[in-house]
Design brief:
By secondary structure, this protein is of the alpha/beta class. The chain is built from eight helices and eight strands.
């Protein structure tokens, strides 16, 4: 029977002290909740996509994705307020109004901030929050309701456009300080647009017209939202 005797090298290895196990990294403690309140961010960028799909090359915000976010925000006991960041060229009127109505009746403090553009149906979205800001360099385009494609040349078509336009005007005037007559004159102005009709407002101009509450940036918008949360 063969007996394997330990070699000299193996004896030396057994006599060497064993290295202590490497220290394990401590688990990171969970983040502490903000004592001023928890804010949910909602971004509305590109074109607001409604019932018709936009080409894949278009940057869009799909309203069917935003609606569940707003419902979850209203339902959550951990969210104290909503910050809406807008950089949109507008889009589907009914989809935009649907989102604006949800924001306006969220049941929690809300602040909006136009950081690039809040054009067309982006205007109701901007004013739907409890308080609205616009960056000094941001713009807003005010113009009548438009439609692309084949139109039926009949009085009923005009009535439909007129009623849709009234819905937009009613919402804007109800949630901002601009009068109905002044809003209509901005929409129908033929002097300040290179083509078509409408008005482009830049930063402080939107505030002076009574559409937006104040000029400011992200810090201003968050501070205002924390102020509202603190009064709850």
């Amino acid at each position: 029977m063969d007996i394997n005797m330990p070699t000299e090298q193996e004896n030396e290895d057994e006599q060497k002290p064993q290295a202590p196990p490497a220290p394990q990294p401590e688990a990171m403690p969970p983040p502490k909740p903000n004592p001023r309140g928890v804010i949910q961010i909602l971004t509305i960028i590109g074109q607001i996509e409604g019932h018709v799909l936009m080409p894949p090359t278009n940057k869009t915000t799909k309203y069917e994705n935003v609606i569940p976010q707003l419902v979850a925000c209203a339902e959550s006991t951990e969210v104290d307020g909503l910050l809406v960041l807008l950089n949109t060229m507008g889009g589907d009127v009914e989809a935009g109004l649907a989102l604006a109505e949800l924001i306006a009746h969220l049941g929690k403090p809300s602040v909006s901030l136009v950081i690039g553009g809040g054009h067309s149906i982006g205007v109701p979205l901007a004013v739907s929050a409890k308080y609205s800001f616009i960056a000094p360099s941001a713009t807003m385009t005010i113009h009548p309701v438009r439609m692309n494609g084949t139109l039926v040349g009949a009085p009923q078509t005009y009535e439909y456009f007129n009623k849709t336009q009234e819905r937009v005007q009613d919402f804007i005037t109800e949630h901002s300080k601009i009068s109905r007559d002044r809003l209509n004159s901005l929409m129908m102005d033929t002097q300040t647009m290179a083509q078509d009709v409408g008005t482009i407002l830049i930063g402080e101009e939107a505030v002076s017209e009574g559409i937006i509450d104040a000029t400011g940036g992200l810090h201003d918008a968050m501070e205002k939202l924390y102020e509202f949360i603190g009064k709850m």
